[in-house]
Amino acid sequence: MGLSNSNPSCPLCQSSSSFFHKDFRRHYFKCDTCSLVCINQDSLPSIETEKAQYDLHENRPDDLNYQNFLNRLAEPLLEKLNPNSSGLDFGCGPGPTLSLILEEAGHRVSIYDPIYHPDINLLSQSYDFITATEVFEHLHQPAKDLKVLFNALHTGGWLGIMTKRLLDKESFTKWHYIQDHTHVCFWSETTFQWLSKKWGSSVEFPGSDIVLIQKK
Asked: Which residue would you say has higher pLDDT here, 165 or 57?
């Protein structure tokens, strides 16, 4: 990976960005419009590097701690859903678990992951809800990916997101989240508010790392 210091265009809104922080591995830039913090395109990890990192994760459906972790998103989302809703778990990883939790609650859930479950036909279907847990920080092309997700949601549908939120520059410089080289963009409450306004949608923050966006 290179350590380019040229200011990139924001991968979410294509606006200009300003230097935000640097460490021994990367430079970080903050969008002047939507406040997304990202790295340069030439510093993005390869898919092989990403898979090697993801393969180290020990997230199993029978792990109660992992289930409790995912319930932080599942519980507020389930309060919003009509019975027998259809959904997509986007970026489910090698051991899909959130889909099982939601299915046990009476919903129908398809699973998609670009590495482990790459059935792109699922992305052209329509859903009452879409979940993305610990996914948004990995998106190389968030504008492209979120357009796909937004188009796949029914009107009134919910996008449930789990990602740790950026608070301020001081905490960012000490943040363990930026030490994972597969984390390439960092979202704040301001960024999600910008996104929901762009979509003409509503946004809620039921947890410190949970976001619910409803398509209007």
From this structure: 165
